[in-house]
Amino acid sequence: MIADRVTLPAGEPGKPAPEYGRARDVRTGQPAPLFDGRPKREQVQQGLLGDCGMLASMAAVAGHRPEAIAQLFRPNPDGSVDVLLHESTLLGDSIGPTGRRLRITVHPGTPPVRGAFAASVTGPGARPA
Predict the structure, then answer these.
(1) The domain containing residue 109 runs over which residues?
(2) How far is the CA of 83 from the CAs of 44, 47, 71, in angstroms?
(3) What is the pLDDT of residue 88?
Protein backbone atom coordinates (compact mmCIF):
# COMPACT_ATOMS: atom_id res chain seq x y z
CA MET A 1 0.00 0.00 0.00
CA ILE A 2 1.29 3.46 -0.84
CA ALA A 3 -0.02 6.62 0.75
CA ASP A 4 0.91 10.16 -0.17
CA ARG A 5 1.94 12.60 2.51
CA VAL A 6 -1.21 14.47 3.22
CA THR A 7 -1.26 18.09 4.27
CA LEU A 8 -1.24 18.14 8.04
CA PRO A 9 -3.59 20.42 9.97
CA ALA A 10 -2.30 23.68 11.45
CA GLY A 11 -1.34 23.58 15.09
CA GLU A 12 -3.62 24.87 17.80
CA PRO A 13 -2.69 28.24 19.35
CA GLY A 14 0.10 27.76 21.87
CA LYS A 15 0.81 24.17 20.78
CA PRO A 16 3.30 22.86 18.23
CA ALA A 17 1.87 22.01 14.81
CA PRO A 18 1.88 18.32 13.83
CA GLU A 19 4.76 17.37 11.55
CA TYR A 20 6.16 14.37 9.77
CA GLY A 21 9.05 12.58 11.45
CA ARG A 22 9.96 10.49 14.46
CA ALA A 23 7.89 10.85 17.59
CA ARG A 24 9.79 12.90 20.17
CA ASP A 25 9.61 13.16 23.93
CA VAL A 26 7.96 16.55 24.52
CA ARG A 27 10.07 17.16 27.65
CA THR A 28 13.52 16.44 26.18
CA GLY A 29 13.10 16.66 22.40
CA GLN A 30 14.83 13.27 22.11
CA PRO A 31 13.35 10.39 20.09
CA ALA A 32 10.58 8.74 22.08
CA PRO A 33 11.32 5.22 23.32
CA LEU A 34 9.31 2.38 21.84
CA PHE A 35 8.22 1.45 25.36
CA ASP A 36 8.39 3.23 28.69
CA GLY A 37 8.31 0.14 30.88
CA ARG A 38 6.16 -2.88 30.18
CA PRO A 39 3.24 -2.48 27.75
CA LYS A 40 -0.11 -2.14 29.57
CA ARG A 41 -3.65 -2.64 28.32
CA GLU A 42 -4.55 0.89 29.45
CA GLN A 43 -2.04 2.34 26.96
CA VAL A 44 -3.90 1.12 23.87
CA GLN A 45 -5.98 3.82 22.17
CA GLN A 46 -7.93 3.47 18.95
CA GLY A 47 -7.64 6.11 16.26
CA LEU A 48 -9.88 6.43 13.21
CA LEU A 49 -8.77 3.26 11.40
CA GLY A 50 -11.62 0.99 12.51
CA ASP A 51 -9.14 -1.52 13.89
CA CYS A 52 -10.81 -2.12 17.25
CA GLY A 53 -10.64 -5.92 16.94
CA MET A 54 -6.89 -5.95 16.52
CA LEU A 55 -6.32 -3.36 19.24
CA ALA A 56 -8.62 -5.16 21.68
CA SER A 57 -6.62 -8.34 21.10
CA MET A 58 -3.33 -6.53 21.66
CA ALA A 59 -4.66 -4.89 24.83
CA ALA A 60 -5.77 -8.29 26.17
CA VAL A 61 -2.35 -9.79 25.50
CA ALA A 62 -0.65 -6.74 27.07
CA GLY A 63 -2.71 -7.34 30.21
CA HIS A 64 -1.54 -10.92 30.59
CA ARG A 65 1.76 -11.24 28.66
CA PRO A 66 3.23 -7.76 28.09
CA GLU A 67 6.57 -9.24 27.02
CA ALA A 68 4.79 -10.84 24.03
CA ILE A 69 3.66 -7.39 22.83
CA ALA A 70 7.16 -5.94 23.23
CA GLN A 71 8.57 -8.77 21.08
CA LEU A 72 6.34 -7.73 18.14
CA PHE A 73 8.17 -4.41 17.70
CA ARG A 74 11.68 -4.29 16.24
CA PRO A 75 13.47 -0.97 15.74
CA ASN A 76 15.63 -0.54 12.63
CA PRO A 77 18.82 1.55 12.30
CA ASP A 78 17.07 4.01 9.92
CA GLY A 79 14.53 4.97 12.60
CA SER A 80 11.72 2.82 11.22
CA VAL A 81 10.09 0.09 13.30
CA ASP A 82 8.99 -3.34 12.07
CA VAL A 83 5.78 -4.65 13.62
CA LEU A 84 5.35 -8.43 13.34
CA LEU A 85 1.79 -9.74 13.38
CA HIS A 86 0.24 -13.18 12.92
CA GLU A 87 -2.14 -13.40 9.97
CA SER A 88 -5.64 -14.80 10.48
CA THR A 89 -8.52 -15.58 8.19
CA LEU A 90 -12.28 -15.80 8.49
CA LEU A 91 -13.45 -19.43 8.72
CA GLY A 92 -17.23 -19.32 8.59
CA ASP A 93 -18.29 -17.84 11.93
CA SER A 94 -14.84 -17.90 13.48
CA ILE A 95 -11.33 -16.68 12.83
CA GLY A 96 -8.32 -18.95 12.55
CA PRO A 97 -4.57 -18.51 12.13
CA THR A 98 -2.99 -19.03 8.71
CA GLY A 99 0.47 -19.70 10.14
CA ARG A 100 1.94 -16.71 8.28
CA ARG A 101 3.61 -13.75 9.98
CA LEU A 102 3.17 -10.29 8.51
CA ARG A 103 5.76 -7.54 8.82
CA ILE A 104 4.55 -3.95 8.72
CA THR A 105 7.25 -1.28 8.63
CA VAL A 106 6.34 2.04 10.20
CA HIS A 107 8.64 4.75 8.84
CA PRO A 108 9.66 7.96 10.60
CA GLY A 109 7.64 9.87 7.97
CA THR A 110 4.36 8.53 9.35
CA PRO A 111 2.55 11.64 10.60
CA PRO A 112 2.18 11.68 14.40
CA VAL A 113 -1.39 12.98 14.49
CA ARG A 114 -3.67 11.70 17.25
CA GLY A 115 -6.75 10.11 15.78
CA ALA A 116 -5.32 9.49 12.32
CA PHE A 117 -3.63 6.21 13.30
CA ALA A 118 -3.88 3.64 16.04
CA ALA A 119 -2.03 5.04 19.02
CA SER A 120 -0.27 3.63 22.04
CA VAL A 121 0.85 6.13 24.63
CA THR A 122 4.32 5.12 25.85
CA GLY A 123 4.68 7.46 28.78
CA PRO A 124 3.87 10.90 30.14
CA GLY A 125 6.44 12.63 27.92
CA ALA A 126 6.01 10.63 24.72
CA ARG A 127 3.95 11.97 21.85
CA PRO A 128 1.39 9.39 20.65
CA ALA A 129 1.88 8.22 17.10
Answers:
(1) 41-120
(2) 15, 17, 9
(3) 86
